[in-house]
Write a structure and sequence with these properties.
Radius of gyration: 11 Å
Number of strands: 2
Shape: globular
Strand content: 5-15%
Strand order of the largest sheet: 1-2
Helix content: 40-55%
Structural class: mainly alpha
Order of helices and strands: EHHHHHE
Length: 70
């Protein structure tokens, strides 16, 4: 299972979905799905934009886990 840490990252910086959508020009629905870990596919451009925006690496945003409950 792939875990998305977007909600944690945004929480640490006290950002709302609307803030990130507005400042990155990423579709709000895309960010919402990633935030709630409901996204089944994400464009590499979106991942790159978020990594540059938050100044993080891809591995900080996504994590591969063996446990589906994590």
């Amino acid at each position: 299972m792939i875990k998305c840490h977007l909600s944690t990252i945004m929480g640490e910086k006290r950002l709302k979905i609307a803030d990130v959508a507005r400042e990155t020009s990423i579709n709000r629905g895309t960010i919402t799905r990633m935030y709630h870990e409901e996204a089944t596919r994400v464009d590499l451009e979106v991942i790159e934009t978020l990594c540059r925006y938050f100044k993080i690496e891809v591995g900080d945003l996504y994590e591969l886990t063996d446990d589906p409950d994590i």
